[in-house]
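user:
I keep going back and forth on a fold encoding question. Separate attempts, laid side by side, tell us more than any discussion would. Would you put together a sequence-and-structure record for a protein of your own picking? Write it directly below this note and I will take it from there.

assistant:
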Amino acid sequence: MTTLANPAARNGFDISPFTRAMVIVAGGAMTAICLLAIGRALLGLTPDLPHLRYLAVAIHVTTVLPCVPLGAYLLLARKGTDMHKLLGKVWVGLMLVTATAALFIHSGGGFSWIHIFVPVTYRACWKIVSTARAGNIKAHKGEIMGLFFGALMIPGIWAFIGEGRLMNVMLLG
């Protein structure tokens, strides 16, 4: 649990300087790469994007993209405020929609290794809410960190380096 013995917790900032730096680097880099890819696509600098013809892909991309900067903001900003709680609910909701849409995205006729993040996301979202309601801020923070870095950054990196994936095509043509 967060205590007043931790000066960072008194100010509402409950992550270490190292973790803050990791959030800034990972969240900032991923946000910048996403904006670059979207900009290239909007300017017509990419080949045809047939991926977007599929509703599940469109929903997945539309809901996951704001999760990166919003998640980073929530990790970096003051905790416990009404705004933190509201934006946290929005973030969890977006993550749940993103994960659900992923269930309907298949390449090669079935699920791939990346679908492991769907149950991981469902579990983490449930734990994020239940630990916050129980006042277990340490566990709440751990679940959010795991979801942000594990189920958002890892698949995000794969989206850009995986040959033929939508974000890969948008970024690299």
Notes: Residues 13-172 form one domain. Residues 159 and 168 are 6 Å apart (CA to CA). The helical segments are 7-10, 17-42, 55-64, 67-76, 82-102, 117-134, 137-161, 166-172. Residues 17-42 form the longest helix (26 residues).
